[in-house]
## 1
Amino acid sequence: AGAETVKRAVQLDVASRFQESLVCYQEGIDLLLQVVKATTDEAKKHRYRQKISEYMTRAEDIKKHIEKEKQDGKYHKQIRIEENATGFGYEKLFHEYLTEIVSEVWVEDPYIRQVHQASRCSLYNFLRFCEMLVKGPCKVKTIHLLTSYDEGSGRSQQMSVLEEIKQSLSNYGVTLNIDFSSSIHDREIRFNNGWMIKIGRGLDYFKKPQGRFSIGYCDFDLRPCHETTVDIFHTKHTKKI
């Protein structure tokens, strides 16, 4: 298993898929270290240790390369969330980019407006996202939300819920600014440290839970997802037209 994992790491490395390659190198090294512990043949141990040392060196080089790309703003990471996949709660996607200097967040999503089943509870999802920001480690002071008005009879409920979220955030020293647009289509989230996250389905990539007392109702890491793609950029690497 260790040999197959590092083989995959090398393939990804050659293909310049460095983020995925690094994960495979790290997993492969751990598996090979277990093999070394279980091997009594000293010659085999020596060969394994040599290979592990080579893989560790390459993994460190890749890690430095990724960090440099982040600092230079040339980093682009794409995450493909498969249909019914789990383990993709908001912390999983955003935590790496919510550094301590983040104090301002922009959310652009046209569908933060309804709570009934057809919308998969988009207002609740926005609330969960806000809860993640409040928990830190960032020190968010302002959240800007740009969305669209509910087109039906749910507008008053939309306004009431957003006002409640706004008041609740104020208790934690966070200001929520809400604006509406009838022409907004794109979905993106930006942090004032330069990171930008684009999710094909916006914040509503989770499937409706089977029931209020089913696993995944409270913990989004356990909630099955709809298929979607997440693209992560730095604003240094984007061009304004």
## 2
Amino acid sequence: RYKSVVTPRRAAVAIACCWIVSLLVGLTPMFGWNNLNKMRRTQELNGSHTEFVIKCQFETVISMEYMVYFNFFVWVLPPLLLMLLIYLEVFNLIRKQLNKKVSSSSNDPQKYYGKELKIAKSLALVLFLFALSWLPLHILNCITLFCPSCETPHILTYIAIFLTHGNSAMNPIVYAFRIKKFRTAFLQIWNQYFCCKTDKNVSTTTTEPGN
């Protein structure tokens, strides 16, 4: 049913929706949900008449209420748990199919479901790396919000932020190592655009000038 359900038009709409939601969620602090007013009030209460200067640190400019309640509890944790449940169900279904006896009239279901299991493991690895990359930052944000007296080293925050950015670079690497078609495509792109080599498997035809 995949080809009938996932049409190019529906895939394009789904991708567009993901980008729109991501932009809205990611740019929410720029729309006003930030610590700018809080920092101004703090300066006024301190009676400081010096020029207002913002200390550009993540926990200083970004509201922890936004990061924890809106970002983590709404847009990260529920989808993560939902995807975990979906993958558990997928692995359970594949395991049941692999345990069934292969009938003589079937078109090699063991090979088919074995391939499906390999792909499912690759996607589950992507999900695991996502959780590994993003949960440390969100856990630190929860500590900052719910335990104001607790001090976390800035180096841990920087490492957590680095992991979130590094997660974007992990997925192509995982796909390239785990899925043959992705690996072949990446090698072709690398050889063509970085090494200036042409793919030997692609047949080229030359035409002689006609009369």
## 3
Amino acid sequence: DEECVDKAKKALENSWQVLNSGDWKLEKQTPEGDTVHSRVLPNIGKIFKLAMLDDYTDITYQVTREVAGGFISSRDFINLRHYAVKDGQHIAAGTGMEHPDFPANIKYIRGENGPNCWVMSPIPKDDKQCTFQWLLNTNLHGWLPQYAVDSALITALTDYIGYIRAYASKLRQEGEL
């Protein structure tokens, strides 16, 4: 597990350096203002990056793995996200969208996100904690009973906050928080 974590941290650092250095060649610009750039790295080859619409807005393409032993198959999502600080609260909000660079793929059922957001609010007089709220609105589409979808989403929410707490605890122990 430690080896995987170290490898993931190194990947983050390497990716950050690559993203913010070097000469990128413009490959495509969409009418919506999205840009795709490329660059060739020694011993790696050609890499691509999708630039954000601005410093606080981006479009993501995500694919989920199948869950419940394949009962819920893989889904793909296209999301438009925006980040801001509002009334001292950090907010990441988004919604699903269509995008010409990400047509439907027969391998996946196209899911759709409605209004979604994460809000991290400071707790007065406690700089080591915050409140966390997650507004989740997801339509998985396909032939799934709603009770199974609801159960899976509730599990995803509670698992995720558990992962956040564990990660924050680890950061506190390492003196990074």
